[in-house]
Amino acid sequence: MELTRRSFVGGAVTFGMTGGVPSIRLAPPDEAPPALRFGVVSDVHVREASGRYGTETLVKSFTWFRDRGVDGVAIAGDMADQGLVSELRLVADAWESVFPGGRGLDGRPVEKLFVYGNHDIEGFKYGKNKSAPEDTIAADRAAAWERAFNEPYAPVWRKAVKGYTFIGAQWDDWNGSPAAVPFLKAHAAELRGDKPFFYIQHPHPKDTCHGPWAWGRDDGAAGLALSQFPNAIAFSGHSHHPLVDERAIWQGAFTSIGAGSLRYIDPVYGRENSGPHAVDGLKQMPLVDRFSGKQGLLVTVYGDRVVVERRDFMYDARLGADWTIPLPAADAKPFAFETRAAKAVAPQFPAGAAVTVSGPAEGRDRKGRKVKQLTVAFPSALNDGAHTRAYDYEVAAEVEECDVSRVVCTKRVYSPAYFLEPGREPRTVGCVFSMNELDTLKSSYFSPAVRFRVRAVESFGKKSEAIVSAFRELKEC
User: Which of 107, 126, 255, 351 is 20 to 30 A from 307, alpha carbon to alpha carbon?
Assistant: First the structure.
C-alpha cells in the first residue's frame, strides 16, 4: 500500500494521545528511504580537548550521527564556552576527526549547519576568564569562523542539502538575530510552499517551544517573520531545557523545536531542586545533577512526514517516543500546545502507593545554613510505557485544626532523573520542607496536625489523583 500525503492526513494514520503526546500508527507503506536525515545538537560549551568541558561527547554525538548516515549536523550555538578561537578550533577538530573532508563513511558529503551563540561571541566576559583579547572570537568573528570551518562567514547563511533549504542565523545580541528578519522577507517567495525548510538560531523564538517561561528566548522578531511560513521548522537551544519536556516541540504558525543541550541540562525554575529562586525557602534540597544529561535530536525527513528522535548521548538511550510531524505542516498541527494540553492524561501512581514523612532532622539548606527539616518520600509515578510520564511532583503541606483543613505550603519538585530516559527513574522521590516553613502554625491555641498530599504532574500540567500521608501533630516535630 502506498502511503500518500492525502491518506496520511485523511485517515491512514491514527493519532492516539498518551499524556498529550501524539502517537502515530502508520498504515504499512512500502518502505522507502528517507529524503533527508540530519542531527541537531546545541550548547556544546567546549573549553578543552578532554575533561568536563572537553570534546568527548561532541565526538560521540558526531559518530552516532555519522553511523546513521546523516546528510548534515546542526549546532544551534554555544560551541566555544569562553568565546575563544582556540575553543572553536577544538570543535572544528572534532568535526574533522569524524567527518574528514566533510564526508561520511561512504564518502557522501555531510554539511556543517552551525551558528554562533552568546558564549561564542561574549563568553570571554563571563566568570573569571582572563583570556587575551586577541584569542576571542568577538575580535573578528568572521575570521575566526573562516579559519575554523573553512567556509565563508555570514550573519545569516543559506545552504541546500539534498534539495532542502537550511537557514542559519548567527547570534547578534540578547534580542536574537535581527539580520534573519530581512533575510526571510527577501527570500519569502522561494521559501513558501509545502516543502519544509529548516531554520537554526541559538535562542528559542519567543513564546514557542518551552512556552513563555523559557529562559533566554529572543525578542519575538524572528518568530513573527517565521509565522509567514507554515512549512518552517525551527531549531534552537540556549535554555538547556530537557527534551523529555513535551513542551520542547511547539506548533503554531510554524514549528519550533528545542534542541536540549550537549553539555548540561538546565531545569525550568520554580521547583525545590531546580535553579535560583526568589523565594528563600526553596533551597532545602540539592540541585538535580545537570551534568548527567547530554541530549540532541536525529531528524529524518520523508515525503509525508518529519520524524524527530530525542537522544541521550551519555547513556545511549531514547528519551521518549519520537515526534512525527505530518507534511505539509499547514494541514495538521498535532503538536500545538492547546491541543495536547486539552487531551493530556494525568500520570498515575502504583496501586497502594504511600507517602511517608521522616524527621525532623538536623540538616543544611543549599546556603549551608543549619535547619530542621522534614523529608516527604513517595513512589515514582508509573513509567511502564502505558502511562504518562511525570514531569514533576506537587507536594502540599495540609494542616488540620479542629474541623478545618487548609494547605499552608506547596512545593514542586523534580525526580533526580526526570530529564533522563524513563528507565532511570528512581523508585522513590523525596521533597524536603524546613520546619521554619511550618513553625508559625505552632502558635495556634490548638496545636494543628500536618499531612502531605502528593500529585504527579505531566508536562502540560495535568495532575494525578493525590496520595496522602497520615496526619501527625506538629508539636511532635
Answer: 107
Residue 165 near residue 198, CB atoms below 8 Å: yes
How would you label 309-345 residue by residue, b for 16+ Cβ within 10 Å and e otherwise?
bbbbbeeeeebbbebbbbbbbeebbbbebebbbebbb
Residue given cell 541559538 in the structure block? 202
Q: Is the pTM here over 0.70, yes or no?
A: yes
Name the superfamily (CATH) of residues 356-476.
Immunoglobulins (2.60.40.10)
The domain spans of the chain are: 5-342, 356-476
Quickly list H helices, 136-274: 141-149, 180-186, 188-191, 221-226
What cell was used for 173? 545580541
Sign of CA dihedral 388, 389, 391, 395: positive
Cell of 364: 543544611
Q: What angle do CA 442, 447, 450 make, to 5 degrees?
A: 85
Tell me the pLDDT tens digit for each residue of 104-118: 999 999 999 999 999
d(CA 287, CA 284): 9
Give me the CATH code for the 5-342 domain, please. Answer: 3.60.21.10
Angle at 281 between CA 278 and CA 282, to 5 degrees: 70
456/477 Cα distance (integer angstroms): 27
Label residue 20 by pLDDT band (50, 70, 90): very low
